[in-house]
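I would like you to sit down with the pair of lines that follows and say whether C-alpha cells and residues agree.
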Amino acid sequence: MVRRLVTSYVALVALALIAFTIPVAITLVQQLGEQQQARVERDARGLAALVGAPEVSVPAVRRLAAEIEAESGGRVSAVARDGAPIGGLPRPGGASALSALAGEEVVERGDRPELGEDGIAITVPARDDAGRVVGVVRVVESDAEREEQLASIWTLRGAIAAVVILLGGIVGVRLARRLTRPLRDLREVAARVGAGDFSARAGETGPPEVVQLATTLNDTTRRLDELLGLQRTFVADASHQLRTPLAAIRLWVDSAAETVEDLDTREDLDRATEEIDRMARLIDAMLLLARAEDSPTRAVPVDLDALVHERRPGWDERAQSTHARVVTELAPGLVVRGRAASLEQVLDNLVDNALGVGAGEVVVRARAEAGRVVVTVEDDGPGLRPADRERAFDRFWRGPGADERPGSGLGLAIVRRLVEQEGGEVTLEASATGGLLVRLTLPADRAATPAGVR
C-alpha cells in the first residue's frame, strides 16, 4: 500500500510539473524566437538605412556589416537596385531579394546555404529619402545560439523537475507511512491473534474508519479469548471432576476382582479395568491439551543435549517394557529457543508413540540446518499411509490397528500445538526402514548455538 500511495503521489507531482513546465517552456521558445527575429530585423534595417543614404558611405557599410557578423556569427549581403555590389558585400539573390526590391520585408527560417545549418534570414529593402527602393539588404543568423539557450532552459527545468519529484517522493513516503501506520499496526495485531496470542490489542488511533476497524478487531479478539478461556476451563474442570469418580470405580473393580472366582466374570472385570485406565489416559491427555492451548510463556534458551540426557532414563525404562531400545544421535552444542517443559512433553510423546507401535529401535536425531534445529524421531514400525499422515494430527484420530494399543488419539495433536507455540513446525514422513519419521523444525538460539547453525 505504501508503494502504491507513493507512486500515486509522485505521479500527481509529475503531472503538475508537466502541466506547468511545458506551457512555460513553449512560451520561452516563442520569446527567444521573437527576440532573435527582432535583433536580426534591427540589424538589417540599420544597414539598409546606410545603403539608402543620399551619399553611401562604403566604409560605414563595411564596418557595420563586420560588426553584425562578428556579433551574431551570421552573414550580411547587399546589392543596389541596378545589381551593383555595395561595399564589396555578397549580393543576395532568390525570390526574397525580388520581393524586397518590390518593397516587402521577407523573413525566412530553415536551412541556410550561406551557413550550412538552420538559421533565420531577413531580407529588407533599402530606401532613399523619397521612399524609393534603391537596394536590398539581407542579414542571416544561425539558430545555434538560440538552440543552446533552449537546451540550457530545458536542462535547468529538467533538473528542477527531478529535484521536485525526488522531494515529492520523500514527502510521499513520509505521508504514506504516516497514513498507513495504523493499518500496519492492525496487520501485526491480526498476525499475533492468528498465531494464538489473544492478548494482542490494536491501538484505536488514526482516521475514523481505522479506529472503527481497530475497535471491531479488539472486541472480536477479546471475545475469542473469553470463549477459548471458557472452553479450556471447562475441559480442565471436567477432566478434574472425572478423575474422582474414575478412581472410585477403579477401586470398586479392583476390590470385586479380588473376591470373584468365576473366570468369565474376572475377564469382564479385567476388561473394565483396561477401559478405566484408557479413560484415565484420555482425561490426562485432555488436561495436557488444555494446558497446551494456554497463551505461550516467554521462550528461553534450552540446551537440547541436556534435555535429552534428562529424559533418556524414562525412555529406556519404557523401551525395556516393549523389548525395544532408544538410540540418540545429537550434534553437539545445539540450543533451541523455547520452553523446556513443552519440549520435554513433545519428545516424550513422540518417543512413547514410536515405542507403542512395537518397534525394535527408536532413533532420536538432532542437527543444525539453515539457522534452525531439526529433530527427528524415527521408528521401524509399520508406518502410516500418506492419506493417514494427513489425518494423524486430528484430535482423537487413531491409526489402523491402534485399538489394540493404549492411547487417546491426542498425542500428535498435543505435539503440533506445543511445537507451533514454540515457533516451529512438525511433519510426518516415511522412514528409510518403512516406519514413521517425525520431523521437528525448531528455532535455534543464535546467541548460544555454534556458528554452524547459522
In short: The longest helix spans residues 208-259. The mean pLDDT is 81. The domain at 2-149 is CATH 3.30.450.20 (Beta-Lactamase).
